[in-house]
Each structure stands twice: as C-alpha cells, then as structure tokens.
Specification:
294 residues; alpha+beta; Immunoglobulin-like; Four Helix Bundle (Hemerythrin (Met), subunit A); 2 domains; 4-stranded antiparallel sheet; 4-stranded mixed sheet; 10 helices; 16% strand; elongated; signal
C-alpha cells in the first residue's frame, strides 16, 4: 500500500543500459517528466480528490526514488493525506485558495498548482447565476431530472479498482531489490573496453543476468486481480523477457577476448523492443489511474 508506482521502477533497469542517465538539468520543469493528475483546480468544501504522480518510464531511473507527496500552503484550506510516495488524497477542508507544491530538488524546478476551494452554498449560487432559464423547475421524479444509474460514478467500485492496483504494484515492488543489484553492477561497467571486458563479462555473468532472471521469475508469479491489470501485466512481463534476452546476449558478446559488436547491437535491439512494451504498460497505467482515480 505504500509504493503505488514502484512496479515501473522495478522494470526500467534496461532503459538505463540502453540510454545512459543524463546529468540533472538546472531548472528543468518537473512536470516535463512527471504527469500530475487526478484532481480539479476547483473543489468544494468536504470534497476529497486524488493526486497522482506518474513518472515517465524514461525518467524513472533518474528520479523514481524521490518523494512526490505535495505540500499545502494553507492547511486550513487543503490538507494532504499521503497514501504512497506517488499518490495522495487532498482534502478540501475550508473555503479559500491554497497552493500544492512538489519539490524533489536535484535540478528540477518545483511543480506548483493553485486550488480554489468553495463552500457548498457558493457552488449552488454560482450555478444559479449561470442559469439563463428563470422558469420554475419541476422536481417531479424522472430519469430526465435524476438521471440513470449509468450517469453516476460508483465511488465504491473505483476504490476497489484502485485497491487492486495498489496490491498489484506492491507485489511488483518486492522485486525492486533484484533491479537495484543488476543496476549497481552495470553502473561499474557502463563503458566496456578491451581492458575491462573480462570484468564486465563477470559482472554480467555473476550479478546482472542472475538478478534480472530473478526479476523475470518474480514478475511471472505476480497475480493481477482484474482483467485490466492483467493486460498491463502482460506488457510488463513480455518486456522483461525481451530485456533478459538482450542482457544474456550482451553477456555472450563479451565472452571472447574480442567483443562481438554485431551480437551486442542485436542485444540492444532486444532491449529497445522491451522498452517499447514498457512504454505501452506505462500508458495503460496512466489510463487506469485516470479512469478510477478521478
């Protein structure tokens, strides 16, 4: 329940292998690499909204480990309830205006959004002022006035779907240790030359490939609890398998005293194919959280 989007981080090690992490850019906008969703900029007193931080897959390895819980400038207007590092509830507790700020530092300009909270009566008055029809309203019960079941969002059902997502991602988060071990070993041999080829091969053989193999085995054992999550999971699993194939091929390319550049290039193609599937999974996660998280 405390690591809402860790699954993406568990599966990006090969993104780093294919595309080296760039240096932090001064004053780069945080919203250029993170999508903040799930809320409206006008809320009513008593209303609760979601605040989701969806990190782009290509940036997860760089900024995925930071805290994305927003800070309210006025807790008498807006209060923040952290649910996980990447998801919070924001509670409108009083009329007024407050600014939410997410500041991870590391060369990124803070993300800010101003939210206006209105009283329930203000909301009613505003609606009345906007009305261009002053005729009496007939409150006779009918589908035209009250709508049908399909006109309303079932909050309880949405909560069930979000709980299912959290449980799924918590399963994925347990695999993070394998990703970290593989990435740590790889970072020591980001550039392979004839002089360090043997050490790089041993790192792939003894640490990188074994840990990524454990990651893939673990992903296979994760059980999504609904059909939509099963589709997302299929992309993650297929992508992880392709990246493991690429890693294994990379290891093989370093076996001989002369690096097999052709095999290494083919390994990168496998890795790129895996990244494409991870991107599809990320898009599906974004759709899921937008659909059920507000």
């Amino acid at each position: 329940m405390n690591k809402l989007f860790k699954s993406v981080m568990c599966l990006v090690v090969m993104v780093v292998l294919l595309f080296p992490v760039s240096a932090f850019a001064a004053d780069k906008k945080l919203e250029s690499v993170v999508d903040f969703t799930g809320f409206n900029t006008t809320l009513t007193v008593g209303e609760t909204a979601g605040f989701s931080s969806l990190i782009h897959v290509s940036s997860m390895s760089e900024i995925g480990g930071y805290d994305y819980v927003p800070v309210s400038s006025d807790t008498s207007v807006l209060q923040v309830e952290p649910i996980s590092t990447y998801y919070s509830h924001i509670h409108a507790v009083g009329a007024g205006t407050a600014t939410l700020t997410v500041d991870v530092g590391h060369g990124y300009a803070p993300y800010t959004v101003t939210i206006k909270v209105v009283g329930s009566q203000d909301s009613v008055n505003h609606s009345a002022e906007d009305s261009t029809n002053n005729d009496p309203v007939d409150y006779t019960a009918s589908d035209d006035y009250y709508g049908t079941d399909g006109d309303y969002t079932d909050g309880d059902a949405n909560e069930v779907m979000l709980d299912a997502l959290i449980k799924y991602l918590n399963q994925m988060a347990l695999l993070e240790k394998y990703e970290k071990s593989a990435l740590s070993a790889y970072n020591k041999y980001r550039v392979v030359t004839p002089s360090n080829r043997k050490q790089a091969f041993l790192a792939f053989n003894n640490v990188i490939v074994p840990n990524y193999t454990k990651l893939v085995v673990g992903v296979k054992k994760v059980v999504p609890s609904n059909e939509e999550l099963a589709v997302i999971h299929s992309y993650y699993l297929s992508g992880a398998k392709l990246q493991l194939e690429g890693l294994t091929m990379m290891k093989s390319s370093l076996y001989s005293t002369k690096i097999d550049n052709k095999k290494f290039a083919n390994a990168n193609k496998k890795i790129a194919a895996g990244i494409a599937l991870f991107n599809k999974a990320e898009a599906k996660i974004n759709e899921y959280t937008s659909k059920y998280g507000g």
